[in-house]
Prior knowledge:
2 copies of one chain form a homodimer.
Chain A: H1 21-28, E1 32-36, E2 39-42, H2 44-63, E3 67-68, E4 74-76, H3 77-83, H4 86-89, E5 95-97, E6 103-106, H5 111-118, E7 130-139, E8 154-164, H6 167-187, E9 192-196, E10 206-213, E11 219-224, E12 230-232, E13 253-256, H7 263-270, E14 278-285, E15 288-295, H8 302-309, E16 314-316, H9 319-326, E17 341-345, E18 354-357, E19 363-368, E20 377-379, E21 397-412, H10 414-419, E22 422-424, E23 430-432, E24 434-441, H11 442-452, E25 454-455, E26 458-459, E27 470-474, H12 480-495, E28 500-503, H13 509-519, E29 523-527, E30 535-540, E31 547-550, H14 554-561
Parallel strand pairs in A: 3-7, 15-17, 17-20, 27-28, 27-29
Antiparallel strand pairs in A: 1-2, 4-6, 5-6, 7-8, 8-24, 9-10, 10-21, 11-12, 11-21, 13-19, 14-15, 14-16, 18-19, 21-24, 22-23, 25-26, 29-30, 30-31
Helix pairs in contact in A: 1-11, 2-6, 2-11
Amino acid sequence: MKLSESFFYTLRENAKDEESTSGNLLVRSGMIKKTSNGVYMIMPMGHRVLKKVENIVREEMDRTGAQELLMPALILEEVYEKSGRREAFGSNMFALKDRYQKNYVLGPTHEELFAVAASMNGASYKSFPYNLYQIQTKYRDETRPRYGLIRVREFIMKDAYSFDTDLEGLHTSYMKMFNAYKACFDRMGLNYKIVKADTGAMGGLLSEEFQAICEIGEDTVVQCEGCDFSSNLEITEVIDTSEVSDEAELAMNEVETPHAKTIDEVAAFFNKTADSFVKTLIYKVDGEFVAFLLKGNRELNETKALKLLQANEIELAAFDDVERITKAAVGFAGPVGLGIKIVMDREVAKMKNFIVGANKTNYHIENVNLKDFKADLVADVACVQAGDVCPCCGKKLVFTKGIEVGNTFKLGTKYAQTMGLNYLDANNKLNPVVMGSYGIGLERCMAAIAEQHNDEHGLIWPKSVAPFQVALVIVSMKDEAQKKAAAELYEQLSAAGFEVLLDDRDERPGVKFKDMDLVGIPCRITLGRKLGEGLVEFKMRDEAEGFDVELSKVIDEVKNRF
Amino acid sequence: MKLSESFFYTLRENAKDEESTSGNLLVRSGMIKKTSNGVYMIMPMGHRVLKKVENIVREEMDRTGAQELLMPALILEEVYEKSGRREAFGSNMFALKDRYQKNYVLGPTHEELFAVAASMNGASYKSFPYNLYQIQTKYRDETRPRYGLIRVREFIMKDAYSFDTDLEGLHTSYMKMFNAYKACFDRMGLNYKIVKADTGAMGGLLSEEFQAICEIGEDTVVQCEGCDFSSNLEITEVIDTSEVSDEAELAMNEVETPHAKTIDEVAAFFNKTADSFVKTLIYKVDGEFVAFLLKGNRELNETKALKLLQANEIELAAFDDVERITKAAVGFAGPVGLGIKIVMDREVAKMKNFIVGANKTNYHIENVNLKDFKADLVADVACVQAGDVCPCCGKKLVFTKGIEVGNTFKLGTKYAQTMGLNYLDANNKLNPVVMGSYGIGLERCMAAIAEQHNDEHGLIWPKSVAPFQVALVIVSMKDEAQKKAAAELYEQLSAAGFEVLLDDRDERPGVKFKDMDLVGIPCRITLGRKLGEGLVEFKMRDEAEGFDVELSKVIDEVKNRF
C-alpha cells in the first residue's frame, strides 16, 4: 500500500480517555476510534490486524473439522427465557422491541441457537460428533467498559459448540478445541496461562480460561511456585491449615473504640493483628441482605458467594442500608444480634475470642465466640491470597494478572435439556445431547497482543498479526533515485508475497520513522543518502539498532527474517 | 468434506412459510433456517456460498484500492439526528436504550459514521481521494420481511464510501465502483440490469441500481424496446403525448350511478373507456390528507408524490377517513367541492369534460373541467405503464421485475455538510468533502442467484459461488472398491485445489442423488457398478444427461469443466 494514495493517520498526543497502554497506542496509531462508551470503529490499519487474528482462528477451527455458520445477533427474548438465562444475564443484555412490540435481545453468546441449529441434523447417534462455529458480533451491555478493546460492548467472537452423545465424546471434542486454542494463541505471539475457572452463568462441568498475562488484567491468575497448579482466583479454594484454637472461651466485652472503623484502625486500637478480628460485610444478594463473616485479613470472594447462595447478582449494600440494618454508623457491623442472614467463612469457625463490630457506633465487642451468634451457613467464601497454600501440593501460591482471551466449557446436557436437543441411541432411546462451548474474543486478542508487545515508541506487532510485514521509507521525496529504488523494492517484495507499506508521503524522515514505529511494522527498510553506495538501512522493530544492507540483498534479508 | 463425519441435512418437504423459490430451496437444502420474522441462521452449507459471495465482493473492492474497516452496528441515535435522517428512517430503525438509558439505534447504513471516520485523515486536499468500505451486519425493521433472504431484518452489507474534493473526482471514484460492481455481479453469474433510481432518504445527485432480473422482484425495471434506456419504475417520467382537447367545455351534470364504484364499473355504466375518467385517490402524506387526481387508467407513483411534497411517509387514507372527507361512501371521491389539498397529474390538465366522483354516495359528475375545481399542484405523479413512450427515443417501454442487489449513489456534499467533514483547498479555504456511497447486500445476492439458477430438482449454483465444486457419490458403502476409489479421487481432487463433498453416508443412492441435486453442486461424480470396468459417471448439474468417464481421466475432465 502506498501511503500517498491511502487513508492513513496517526495521533501525536496520548488519548485522553484511554487508561491502558494498548488502548492508547491503538488509538494513536490510527487502528481504532471510539464512537461511544465501549464501542469502537476498527479503522483500516487496525482492521488488517483484526483480520489476521480472525484468519488464524478460522484456520485452526477448520483444521479441527469444525464447520462454520452464521447466527443472527437479533434474537427473540423468549429463546433465553427458555434456557433460563434471561434473568442470569439481566441488564448485561441489550433488549429492544421491534415495530410490532415483540421482545428481542442482542445475543451475548449463542448456546441456545446452536442447540436449535443442531436439531436439524437428525437424531440418530450415528450423526455425531460434530462441531459448529461462527465468527460473529456479540453484544454485552457492560456496566463499566474500559481498557480500549479489552472490555467493550460490541465485539467479534469466535464461538464454537461441540455436540456429542456422551461425556467421553465430549472430552475428545473438548481436547481438540483446547489444543486448537493453544495453537491460536501461540501463533498470535501471546504469553498466556491456562487456568481452571468458574462455570458461572454458562453452567456446566468444567471451565478453563486462556489468560494473557498483563498488568492491567482484570482476572487474578493463581499459580503454585511448586507444582503446575493454576486457577482463576475466583474459584481457588482457601486451604485452611490452622487448627481449632484450644484457648478457653471468654465472656463477650463491649469496648468503646472511637474513631476506629477500619480493620487497621481497630487492630491498632486493640494492639492486635488483623487475623484476631472477624469482619462483617453486608451485601445485597439478588435483593436480599446477607452478612459475610471473614477473618480480618481476608476479602470476600463474590463468585464463591454467588455459587453458594445460587444467586445471580451481588453488590455491597448501600451505606444507608448498612446503617439501618446495624442501627449504627458504617464500620461497626457485627454478627451479634444482627437481624439478617449470616454466612460465615470456614476459617472463622476455628477462631476463638475474636473481635467484631458491636452494631453500635464507636463500639466493638471482644472475646466473641461461635456460641454468641448464629451463622446460617458455613463455607469457603474467602479469596485466596498470595502466599496461601497450594490445594495440590502444599507449596505457596503466587499471583499474576491476566486478560481472558479464550474460554472452553464442558457444558454437559444443560442446554440440550432446556432446548430439547435429544438423540436416539442404538436402543432407540432418547437422550440429551452433550455439548461443549468454546469462545475467543477477537478484539480482545488484538488488544492483549498490543498490551504485551510495545515500547515507548509504539506497538511492536508479532509477524503473524502485523498489518504489514515491511515498511519502505523514502527519506527524500525529491530524490528520484530513492523513489525509483523504493518502487522497485515495493514491486519485488509484493511479488514475493510480502505485505508492504510504502511511505512515499511528502513528510520529514523523522515523522515517517515515528509513524512506522508507532504503527509497529516488524521490518523497516529506509532508502536514504547511502543509496548512492548501493546501501539501505534495515531495521527490525524489535531490535534496538538497524544496519546497512546492500540493495541487491534486501529481499533475501527480508525472507530470512520471516 | 466427508458427509459421514459432518453436520449435513436436507428437508424433503417444501417450507410452509416461504413464498419464493429461492427461500424454499435454500431452506430445504439446509442452507438457511428461519429464527424469527425476517431473521435467519446461515447454516454451514449456506455459509460456504455466502463466504464466496463475500470474497468476490472483497476482491473486487480491494482491486479498486478501497480500504476495509469495520464499524459498529450499535450507534448513538444522535448521530442520525445530526444528519437529519432519524426521522426519515422512522420505525425502520431498531431503537434501544442501554443500561444508562442512553438512546441507541442499530445502523441501517453508515454514511454518518464514515464521514466521522474520514475526518481522521486530516483536512488537506492532498490527502484525497480515497475509498473506505466494510462488510458488516445491517439492521432494518422492515414492515413486511419476505421472500427468504431477499427482504430480511438483519443482513450483511458491503458498504463503501468514496471521498473526493470535487464532482469530477466523485465521478472518477463513482465509475471505479460502478465497474467493480459489474465485475462482482458478472462473477456471481447474475443476470442483471442497471437502472437509474430515486435517491430517496439517501439524498444526493444520482442513484443507480443493479437489478437482478427475477419474477418475484419487488422493483419494476423499465426498459425501452428501442434504445438502451433503463430506469426504476419509481422515477420514470410519464411522457404525455396527448394534445389539449379542443372540444367545447360543457356544463357539469350530476348522474346517479348506483352500484358503480370502481373505474371499470363506472366506465361500463357510462359506456366510455377508463381514460375519460379522472380518479381521485386520497392519501395520508406525513399526517396530512392529500387528494391525487389521475387519468382513470393510471396509478399513483408514490415515490414521485413523496418527492413532490418533500415528505417521508405516504399511505392510502383509511376508509373512515375517506368517508369523513368526502361525506360519501368509498368510491365516490371527486375534486369538486373537496376540502383538502389537491395534486393533479399533468395528464389531467389536458383533459376536458371528464367524469369524476360526486362526493355523494351513488353519484358521479360528468362534463367536469379544470375551471370547476382548484388543484393546488400540477405535476407528473403517475406511474409509467408498459407501452408508454420512452423518454429518450420515443419508442415503447417494456417492463421486467428486478431484485435490487446493489446500488451506487453520488451523494455530493450532503453528509459532509451535516457531519462537518471539510477539507482545506490549495488556497487554504474550507470546503465540504464530496462523497459517494455504494452498497451490495450479500444475502440478497445469494438469494437472487438461487432465484435465477434452479430447476424442479433444486439449486444449480454457478461454479463461482457453489458450496463445493464436486460431489463424489459412493453408490454402495458395502462395496470396498467404490470406497477406495472414492477416497483416492477425494484426495487427488482436493490436492488439485477443488472443494469436494464426499457422500459416504450409508444411504440409498437415490437419496444421495436427490440431496446433491437439491444442494446444487455443479459437478457430480458417481462411483457405482461400472467401476469394475474402470468407469465412473460424470454429470454436470446444469446438463440433462451424465456420461461415463474412465477413472484415470476424471481429474482432467473436472479441470476441463472449471
